[in-house]
Amino acid sequence: MKEKPFSKYQILANAVMIIWTLAIILPFILLFMSSITDENTLVANGYSFFPKKFSLASYSYIIKSGGQILKAYGVSIGVTVVGTLLNVLLSALMAYPLSVKNLPGRNVMMFFVFFTMLFNGGIVPSYIMWTGTFHIKDTIFAQLLPNFLLSAWNVMMIRTYFTTSIPDGLYEAAEIDGASQFTIFWKIVLPLGKPILVTMGTFAGLAYWNDWTNGLYYIVKNTGLYNVQNLLNQMVQNIQFLTQSSNSNVTAAASTIPATGIQMAIAFVAILPIMLIFPSFQKYYAKGIALGAVKG
Amino acid sequence: MASLKKSHASSGSSHSKAAKFKRYLPLYLMFLPGAIYLLINNYIPMAGIIVAFKKYNARLGIWKSPFCGLANFEFLFASSDAWTITRNTLLYNQAFIVLNTVVGIIFAIFICDTFNKKLKKIYQSAILFPYLMSAVILGYIVYAFLSQSTGIVNNSILSALGKDAVNWYAEPKYWPFILIFVNTWKGVGYGCLIYISTINGIDPSLYEAASLDGATKWQQIKNITLPFLKPTVITLTLMSVGRIFYSDFGLFYQVPRDSGLLYSATNVIDTYVYRGLMKSGNVGMSAAAGFYQSIIGFIIVLTANGIVRKVSKENAMF
């Protein structure tokens, strides 16, 4: 039905896509290669796909140094797991009432959620509130609470799925059977909504794993609460500070920054979980993105 | 449980309102935790936006700090920063919208037309993958290429061509291209996947009929694929235009490594607000810039949506 596999068009299309695919894969390979390059080789010859001398020193440093690096992974994993579970539960709880057609006040409730997507107060009042009223600065809540616990977008997506995929009469039928709304939610809505909850959960999890802004704003002194991204960011900041200052203590301070190879190793291990889950979660990400274009 | 049935049966009678409320109470309770979160995380800061009109004093807090009229705005707009950050934010976003749409559509068509199923899968995975990276990682990857002494561009490419090394993190003139490329590298997959799912929804018999009639590939794309993609393009563009006053803080902060020498080319409203609040401690100006962003951003969302409602109602957000 279509043109031959080796038509000019097919060759052009594949050539472009192969080049683009390489442009995406190669930087990650470079990142990995520099994490297993001998530090002196890296400093002398620069980043390279084919380093002259290999070394696993960076990875053994991460494991041996224990302390902050492993702790940061612990924070990343813990916050991601707890945050994602809370996010999915809160979103589902919020989306279910919004999907019940004859619920009085439903439009007002919808507007309450939707409006947060149109307008926001910005970081200055948020920052003042979280630090001044709730005192989350330098506590683990700083990594968990601001911005990522619930998003109106997720709630809308889940609500749309509930309205279209859960049969209308189901609630009434269960009600007549004497089931409470909470039982209905737990026994019917959550299992039926599993596909959308997993899809939205993968995005919530990614947002927590990748977040570095909460740490940037709210973790100031207690660096033990840094996640991996904050740690990586901190290393960049220290280097920028050193290269931009003419202070004579520079050499002393420079020795406290993990060498380039170690930074690359930490960065690689920060990507690793995403690489590992990518094959099995890819379809959820793709589905979630495709859903985004369909309005709720 | 009996009361549930009873209230169900009695709906419509005189005390139905109370009964109805009782019946639906559990649903309101379910809505409550999320609502409290939105109230704290989103609505209180909306009210707190008033800080832009105050001489903020950390000891007094937002509400008790004294009003100072438009002083914060006068300072902000008297500086050249206001113009720079507005220009940068708008120009970058325009470039991002155009490129992500055009490149996204081209890639989507190429991927959908690829014969080999395996290659198709590989392409689809590849374009999605960078989208999942954090800005910090993005910054590290770019650094591996652009670092002055160790980066692969200076070390392997420019030296092989016999050219002098460039101090990338000190030369603003290169950064519009770098940031636009990095943004496309990272973000094109998002729109592309949406276009792919739209193209997959087109009836294949349309293409069969067209090729029987002798239509060239280009004619098929122009007359079948592109018209089908139009509603999706409108929806996605509307969403991006609605956010045209906002930028990806990570892209503009992490990728240039917060290098002060690059601010003329990399400073956008979001990075400006951050630096005012956290670095220079200029809360008033930072709040004024944040207010400016929120209000103009809100007007733009409403306008963009209003225009789309007039042109093609079914593509409007609300």
UniProtKB/TrEMBL annotation, chain A:
PROSITE patterns: ABC_TM1 (PS50928). CDD domains: TM_PBP2. Residues 73-281 form the ABC transmembrane type-1 domain. Pfam families: BPD_transp_1. It is found in: Cell membrane. It comes from Fusicatenibacter saccharivorans. It comes from the Bacteria. This is Carbohydrate ABC transporter permease. GO terms for cellular component: plasma membrane. The lineage of its organism: Bacteria, Bacillati, Bacillota, Clostridia, Lachnospirales. It is a multi-pass membrane protein. Belongs to the binding-protein-dependent transport system permease family. Keywords: Cell membrane, Membrane, Transmembrane, Transmembrane helix, Transport. GO terms for biological process: transmembrane transport.
